[in-house]
Amino acid sequence: MSNGQNETGRREMSGAEMVVQALKDNGVKHLFGYPGGAVLPIYDELFQQDDVEHILVRHEQGAGHAAEGYARSTGKAGVVLVTSGPGATNMVTPLQDALSDSIPLVCITGQAPTMLIGTDAFQECDTVGITRPCTKHNWLVKDVNDLARILHEAFHVATTGRPGPVVVDVPKDVQFAKGIYTPPQTAPRTSYQPKVQGDLEKIKAAVALMAEAKKPIIYSGGGVINSGPEASHLLRELVDLTGFPITSTLMGLGAYPASGKNWLGMLGMHGSYESNMAMHDCDVMICIGARFDDRITGRLNAFSPNSKKIHIDIDPSSINKNVRADVPIIGDVGRVLEDMVRLWRATAKTDKKALYPWWEQIAKWRARDSLAFKPNNDVIMPQHAIQRLYELTKHLDTYITTEVGQHQMWAAQHFHFDKPNHWMTSGGLGTMGYGLPAALGVQIAHRDSLVIDIAGDASVQMTMQEMSTAVQYEAPIKIFILNNQYMGMVRQWQQLLHGNRLSHSYTEAMPDFVKLAEAYGGHGIRCEKPGDLDDAIKEMISVKKPVIFDCRVAALANCFPMIPSGKAHNEMLLPDEATDEAVANAIDAKGRELV
Amino acid sequence: MNAQLQPTGSAYFIAKETERPENHTLSVLVDNEPGVLARVIGLFSGRGYNIESLTVSETEHEKHLSRITIVTRGTPHVLEQIKHQLERIVPVHRVVDLTVLAGELGQDRPMERELALVKVAGTGDHRVEALRLAEAFRANVIDANTEHFIFEITGKVSKIEQFIAIMKPLGLVEVCRTGVAAMNRGPQGM
């Protein structure tokens, strides 16, 4: 004990040392952050070690989204370090984004020293108060002897159960104070015990229901990705065993391969016709790790009216929240699927012939070709740009992030994912500006992979400053902007709802994205003609530094198919029916009140 | 088409609520740590739930456990959501809907009691009448001089409401109420 250490790893150190030690003990390799007065002791400790690499962003929001991209693509917690006051408030958007999409984030914030808390000190804010509703849990550490335990607990809470963001607020005097560090322990607090194993009787009931189904559909979501690669593997096995068609939410893309023969495409507001029609007409729906979000269900009282619904979710509050489940199964998707596959093998005989009529019906819907668009030889159609991007990158290990808007939906529709954890997008919160920093985070985790942010010209300007970070850390992210000079989705809704009065959805002054890329020390490419597109994309892939690709696309293209607000799955607006008049009358007075 | 319409009452779609709102009493066992009450209250305000009454105090000192009693109003569907949302809060150990549990135990409703301090000032007939009624309600006088009384009254919410109403014309000055404390009948704990 002469050196202050004993066999159990307990050791005296300063609070700042504890923070860095806890990061190491929890397996953290990368940390995204921005220094400031209230975290300087921790930055001093970071300076004196090499185990944890710190990525210096240009704005705290960028750190948050980068950590989200990092987490989503690795399955590990993303870690952020920011200062008090504005540092913490700038993190609010990524925290809520991570909460909405169940992404594990550990955010450490500096705080004014404990004796100044409550005095309106410089850069003081009520961080735990502000972040309470946008985190899974948060802590204000007032005693350095609690710090190690709380940090380990923070990692445990963020990464287990339904994952989510947590905040640990550490006052500056606690960072300087000396205390006893304790290593991570296996016994978590008694009040937090997520249920991971599903009820076997319920799973049996689900399998029995599935075995009798004539018109079944599997509807999977982000929970499958969050559960880990084994869950995706089991999902594929279940689809192969049962022969059921499968659709997925935006967050769940990649869990079942888009090249798989049972794949119907994404469902929901901008989902494929066949997936939404199949959801509407099915007799048994198996919802796996998804939460019946309003973008998925459309009009709730007309949602899949004749089906029995099986709902697998780790969060009991997701069950019966929007849609009644006939067979609710609470547990981790991976564990439940393991039981389900085993029971199906043991008890159910797949009668694939019984599903023929259902597949025939689906084939008819599929023949409607709902994602079709009119090709154009003079201007680049945005859908075409995504298709070419996919064709030219599918043989590579490609990760895609997006911003939010039309380009996001086109990416989801026309870029096809065969692997989980390769698609990062802001689904629940819909955060414009997510994609660029998220791409940075993905690239930091996967140095040799191709990481592309499919962006819109409006979104990308919200976090453009992180180009500088990408250049600094030689992270060769590709920012593929579908530039139509509009906030395309805003404009589309103005056309649908507000008599085509395009109030402030056109950007009259646009930066020269090529020069902007060069100004940051990156590489700029502009493409205006469909004939030049392939060569330009190949150039983008070959350049070994950050690239901004200004892809000038048809300005007035809209995103179809679409379930207008207040409509049901079987009332989709298809691209070939979307005349100006149909668009203007698609949403009735009641639907106008919805978002 | 759409043969079996089942409105689910989501905030998203303005569907007619077919279920009737009910008052339920919830017992929530939590770690007594800073901010835990704010988490519970924030959940109710953030998700638009109602709080009719709320009481909280540490009930097991050695384990630092507090018991929060919340009377809330909602449809059965919303009440189920409230319970599950409360259970998501990390320092929450258990949530018991005492009203549902009473039903399962074959009882009318949980045992619910409230304490109120009622200050009444006046002289002459009003003063005599106030004291006489207080005795009828089994309220204790805990402070008095020649011009006022403070009554301590314990009982069901309805009894306290009635007592306060009666005291109004007799010189009611102020009222302080604890909110409802509740548990279920029978030998078992929550």
Overall description:
Chain B: It is an enzyme of class 2 (transferase). Chain B: One of its GO terms (molecular function) is acetolactate synthase activity. Chain B: Its EC number is 2.2.1.6. The complex is a heterodimer of chains A (595) and B (190). Chain A contains 24 helices and 20 strands. Chain A has 595 residues and is an alpha/beta fold. Chain A folds into three domains: 11-181, Thiamin diphosphate (ThDP)-binding fold, Pyr/PP domains (Rossmann fold); 200-367, Rossmann fold (3-Layer(aba) Sandwich); 382-552, Thiamin diphosphate (ThDP)-binding fold, Pyr/PP domains (Rossmann fold, 3-Layer(aba) Sandwich). In chain A, the strands form four sheets. Chain A has a six-stranded parallel β-sheet with strand order 3-2-4-5-7-6. A six-stranded parallel β-sheet of chain A has the order 11-10-9-12-13-14, with helices on both faces. Chain A has a six-stranded parallel β-sheet with strand order 16-15-17-18-20-19, sandwiched between helices. In chain A, helix 13 links the parallel strand 12 (284-288) and strand 13. In chain A, helix 1 crosses helix 2 and helix 1 packs parallel to helix 7. The longest helix of chain A is centred in the first third of the chain and has 16 residues, at 144-159. Chain A is globular. Chain B has 190 residues and is α+β, with helices and mostly antiparallel strands. Chain B has two domains: 22-105, 2-Layer Sandwich (Alpha-Beta Plaits); 111-183, Alpha-Beta Plaits. In chain B, 28% of the residues lie in helices and 35% in strands. Chain B has five helices and nine strands, in the order βαββαβαβαββαββ. Chain B has helices at 36-46, 76-88, 98-104, 125-136, 157-167, and strands at residues 22-31, 53-60, 65-74, 92-97, 111-121, 140-144, 148-155, 172-177, 181-183. In chain B, strands 5, 6, 7, 8 and 9 form a five-stranded antiparallel β-sheet that branches. Chain B has a four-stranded antiparallel β-sheet with strand order 2-3-1-4. In chain B, a hairpin with a 3-residue loop joins strand 6 and strand 7 (148-155). Chain B is elongated, with a radius of gyration of 21 Å. The N and C termini of chain B lie far apart (46 Å). The A-B interface holds A 128-129, 132-133, 136-137, 140, 157, 189-192, 294, 297, 299-302, 305-306, 315-317, 319-324, 566, 568, 570, 590, 593-594 and B 1-8, 10, 12-15, 30-31, 34-35, 38-39, 42, 46, 77, 80-81, 84-85, 87-93.
